[in-house]
C-alpha cells in the first residue's frame, strides 16, 4: 500500500506475510442473482497496429533524447514531426475505423455481471497462536486503506480483531478442491521489485501464492478425495480468439492439441526471464528430461455434452502445487510480456492462432470442471502410451482388423502403470478404445503421429474407474505435459 513506507508500516506487512495461511471463517450459504445483461461499447479501434505505435514511440524517444541543446532541438522537432506525418494517406477502411471512435458509431456487445451474495457478510481471517503486532494502530491504518478484495465491485472494510470467532472454518489442506490466493514470506519485496519495473504503466500480473482450502462441509469427505496427481496445481487459462476481434471467441481443430500446447510452451519460454528454468522447460540443467513434476501445457477441448464439437476452445498452463514463488513469478512475468490484461498473444508459425485471457464463464475453460473428484474418468484427448503394443499400429485404420483383446489388455496395463507414475492408486477397471468415448471427442486416427524421445507413441482413448474418488486434473501418458491424455471426470452412471 501507499502507506506502507511510513514508520512501522513495512514492519507490519512483513510480520503479516510470515504468519502462514490462516483459517477462514466464512459462510458457505450464498444466494445468486440472475446475471444482468448490459450492452456496452467495444474497445477503441486502432488505426495503426500496436507494433507500429511502439516502433514510432521508440524512434521519437531516441530523436528527442539526442536533440537536447541549441539548434539541434529545432532540427529534432522537425524530425519528430516528419515521423508522425510519415504514416501516409489514410485509406477508406481507415476512415471507416475512425468513424467508429465516435460514441454513436461504436458497436455494443452484451456483458454479463453475475452477483453472489453471502448469507453472512462478515469474513474473518484467523491466525491461531499469532500474537498482536507491535504497533496495532499501524496495521489498522493499513487495513483501513483496503477498499476491495478481488474484483473492484467487491467492496470491503477491514479491521483487526482479537477474539476467535465461533463456528467451523475453511482450512488449508493439500488436495482440497478450492484454490485461494494467499501471501507468503518475501512477497512484499517481490511486489516492490515488480512495481519498480512496470511503474503501473505496462501490463503486469499481481503476484500471489496459491493455496488449496477445504470448506467446512468438506471435512467429512476429504479423506475420499485425497488421492490427486502429483503434477496437479494452479492454472493459467487462455481462450482462443479471433485476431480481428479479440472479443470474439475462436477455436481450433481438436486433432491439433499437441501442436497448440507445443506452441504455447514455446511462447512461454520465449518470453520467460529464465527460459532454462526446469519447471517451465521440463528439462534439467544438463538438458536431460526432468523426472519431477513440472509445468503442463493443456489443450481444453469442447467435449462431454450432446452439442460438443471436439474443437479446442482454450489452452491452460498448470503449475504443480509444490512450485516456488520464484517459479510462479517467472511464469507470470513471461505471460505478462506475452499476453497482457488487454492484449492478444499469437501462437504457431506466422501467428496462426491467437489467445487472450480466459473467460471463466465458459465451462470448458473452468478448471473446476476438470478438477472435481470422481470415481470415473474418460479421455477428452487420447493417451500416448509408453510402449507400442504389437498389433495396435494398423488396427482401426481403413478396413483393417480391430485390435485383439490381448492388445487392448496390454494398452490397459500401460495406463495402469501411468496412474502410478503420477502418484495415483491403480484403477479398478480400464477400458481401452480407438474410438472416442465422450461426446465430441476426436477419433484416435484423426490425430497426427506423436513422438516422444524420438519414438512414435500409440494413441488410445480410455475410460478408467477407481475404488475411491480421485481429484483432478487427471492427465496420463507420455504426452501428459503437452496436451494429450487429459481426462474428464464423469458420473459413474454415464
Describe the fold and architecture.
The protein has about 500 residues and is of the alpha+beta class. About 25% of the residues lie in helices and about 25% in strands. It is built from 12 helices and 20 strands. The strands form 6 sheets. Strands 8, 9, 10, 11, 12 and 13 form a 6-stranded antiparallel sheet that branches. The longest helix has 17 residues, at about 50-65.
In short:
The protein is of the alpha+beta class and 494 residues long.
Helical amount: 25-40%
In whole angstroms, the N-to-C terminal distance is 51 Å
Largest sheet: 6 strands, antiparallel
Q: What is the radius of gyration?
A: 26 Å
* Average pLDDT: 81
Strand content: 15-25%
Number of strands: 20
Backbone structural class: alpha+beta
Number of helices: 12
Anisotropy-based shape: globular
Q: Ranges with pLDDT <50 over ≥5 residues? A: 69-74, 394-399
